[in-house]
């Protein structure tokens, strides 16, 4: 009986991983509603570049780079992005208070409230979007409209496996009220 229960849980876990791997976050549709702001989570290639493109296109008014290293400056970003210094100076904020996805959401919540925004475009990698959106919805609740906007990537098996485990463990921790 215990072996069957363990086998069933293992099968559920494996099927969950397959579903997770084949249903990664998607970029926002071109017809997605404009939002007041965008929050981009650091840690993956193409994320900040995409956020600046969204800003340039007028789909948002302001961007928070959440989880930025405190040593990084807007000038550093300007050099990395080959221009756009004026845009970075006026409309991009560097947030260095957060160290993980949950604290990214908390930092973003304070920033959104300070600027009196009502909607946010969440920008992160496709493999990270499910957990990021979960954390943001938990912290922001229904006070803000969230538009997920995933940056496509080609994650390795280990990246997907690690992210799936983080997502499952976080969901279990919330369920167990830990």
Automatic annotation (TrEMBL):
Superkingdom of source: Bacteria
Pfam families: DUF218
Stored InterPro entries: Cell_Envelope_Assoc, DUF218, Rossmann-like_a/b/a_fold
Stretches assigned to the DUF218 domain: 36-143
Gene3D superfamilies associated with the record: HUPs (3.40.50.620)
Residue intervals passing through the bilayer: none
Protein's UniProt name: YdcF family protein
């Amino acid at each position: 009986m215990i072996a069957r229960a363990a086998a069933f849980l293992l099968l559920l876990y494996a099927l969950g991983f397959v579903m997770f791997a084949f249903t990664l976050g998607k970029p926002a549709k071109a017809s997605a509603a404009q939002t007041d702001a965008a929050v981009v989570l650091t840690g993956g290639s193409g994320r900040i570049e995409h956020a600046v493109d969204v800003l340039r296109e007028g789909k948002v008014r302001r961007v928070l780079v959440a989880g930025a290293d405190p040593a990084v400056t807007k000038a550093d970003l300007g050099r990395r992005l080959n221009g756009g210094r004026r845009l970075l100076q006026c409309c991009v904020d560097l947030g260095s208070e957060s160290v993980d996805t949950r604290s990214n959401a908390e930092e973003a919540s304070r920033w959104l409230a300070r600027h009196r925004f009502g909607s946010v475009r969440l920008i992160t990698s496709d493999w990270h979007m499910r957990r990021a959106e979960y954390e943001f919805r938990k912290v922001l609740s229904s006070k803000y409209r969230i538009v997920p906007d995933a940056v496509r990537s080609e994650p390795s098996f280990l990246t997907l496996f690690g992210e799936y485990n983080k997502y499952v463990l976080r969901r279990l921790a919330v369920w167990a009220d830990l």
